[in-house]
Design a protein that fits this description.
mainly beta, two-stranded antiparallel ribbon, 1 helix
């Protein structure tokens, strides 16, 4: 049985301290049981951490773009 929490967030490529970042600060993994990518790791002090993303979250959209098939 799958348990999850829905979170709505908009990510910007900046770190929590406001400095420019090269990425949003997370890595994805694929699971054949899901059509959407799963967040494998969230970098400390990243935009993703600031938005509240956590390892194990299923990523449905990034800034209004669907993620189905990414990973």
């Amino acid at each position: 049985e799958l348990y999850y929490t829905l979170r709505l967030c908009h990510l910007h490529p900046t770190n929590i301290d406001g400095s420019q970042a090269a990425t949003f600060g997370f890595e994805l993994t694929e699971d054949p049981d899901f059509e959407y990518p799963i967040i494998a790791r969230v970098e400390a002090q990243s935009s993703a951490e600031g938005a509240g993303l956590q390892s194990g979250d299923i990523l449905l959209k990034i800034n209004e773009r669907k993620t189905k098939g990414l990973g």
